[in-house]
Amino acid sequence: MRSGYFRVILSTLLAVLMLSSGLVVQAHSLSQLADQQQQISGAVATVRSSGAQAYAGPGTGFWRLGRLRANLIVPIIGVSADRQFWQLNTGIGVVWVSAADVVASGTEGVPTIDVGLIGRSTVNSAVRVGAGVEAARLAVLPRGGQFYILGTNADGSWLRIRFEFGEGWIATTNTDQVGRITPSAPDAPDAPDLPRTDVARAEVRASALNLRSGPGDFFTSLGVLAQGATFPILARTPDGAWLQVETDLGKGWLNVRFLRTLDYFGRAPIIRYADAAADGIIAGTTRSSTNLRKGPNLAFDSIGVIPPNTEVAILGQSPDRAWWLVKTALGEGWVNIATLRTRGGTNYVPVLP
């Protein structure tokens, strides 16, 4: 009897100890998480619930280094020039993750990382130990694979690269660098062993992209650019979210979310939003059939009727801010402010005398 009684007591005590131990472990884990959040100061990234793929460079074509678990909080140490990738200091080393896979905070002052020249393979291509098809093959770089460019041979027909398995050589014709680089100059002892480019460029990634008259979706479209089209970068906004480029349609602005930048490291001249807006034109869209009038008042004659859902260019506003001067297919005229929808930026519209 006593033996059974003591066994029951002992079992109960063990159960209590196990339960309390679990509670302590859980509390300790929560405490660690709180400490982690307190210890990491400055710019941090919190991985979204889907997790985040870690890459060796600022692009999904670079080789993968691992995967970051959901809700992990890590310090941000840099950002790519197009601000689409964050450089993080993690438990698996310094990695790059897509900005879409994390929630970033405290990023003011985060430096733009100059990673040097980056290339991409356009076909499955052999990477060799030397510059030439006779050189032994190291590996095959799949189509779309990205790499760092370290130099070229004398005529630029081969690129010396850094990729997943170290350094090697790839035929320039198998990459996106055809016609884009100048061969390295081995006879210039003080020159760095890097190819040279004439100018930073922006390549359209979207199937079609509006060229805007100013840095914002609320500015008028100057035309539509096709996927793959490449243009010289002239300037950028202070936050790097918009790039000014030179096109056949003239100078205009493109959203970096729909671009792939080439040889651009955030060094383009900065144009403030207010200054850029002075040269841009705000767009508006008619809510319904709208009278275009000769002056900013109902007493003025109608020039014609603008159909609904028609985009117009807003050139100015009346002193009472009740009427907008617009440019349409019917010519210039005035419409009541209530007849147009805008996407923002109306504070940039000048008041006309």
Structure report:
By secondary structure, this protein is mostly beta strands. It folds into 5 domains: 1-38; 44-105, SH3 type barrels; 120-198, Roll (SH3 type barrels); 201-279, Roll (SH3 type barrels), CATH 2.30.30.40; 282-348, SH3 Domains (SH3 type barrels, Roll), CATH 2.30.30.40. 13% of the residues lie in helices and 40% in strands. The chain is built from 2 helices and 27 strands. It has helices at 2-39, 273-279, and strands at 44-47, 52-55, 64-68, 73-79, 85-90, 93-98, 102-105, 118-120, 125-128, 137-141, 146-152, 158-163, 166-171, 201-204, 208-212, 221-226, 230-236, 242-247, 250-255, 259-262, 282-286, 290-293, 302-306, 311-317, 323-328, 331-336, 340-342. It has a 5-stranded antiparallel β-sheet with strand order 6-5-4-1-7, with no helix packed on it. Strands 19-18-17-14-20 form a 5-stranded antiparallel β-sheet, with no helix packed on it. It is elongated, with a radius of gyration of 29 Å. The N and C termini lie far apart (105 Å). Residues 12-41 and 185-197 have low confidence and may be disordered.
Write the layout of secondary structure elements.
Layout: H1 2-39, E1 44-47, E2 52-55, E3 64-68, E4 73-79, E5 85-90, E6 93-98, E7 102-105, E8 118-120, E9 125-128, E10 137-141, E11 146-152, E12 158-163, E13 166-171, E14 201-204, E15 208-212, E16 221-226, E17 230-236, E18 242-247, E19 250-255, E20 259-262, H2 273-279, E21 282-286, E22 290-293, E23 302-306, E24 311-317, E25 323-328, E26 331-336, E27 340-342
Antiparallel strand pairs: 1-4, 1-7, 2-3, 4-5, 5-6, 8-11, 9-10, 11-12, 12-13, 14-17, 14-20, 15-16, 17-18, 18-19, 21-24, 21-27, 22-23, 24-25, 25-26
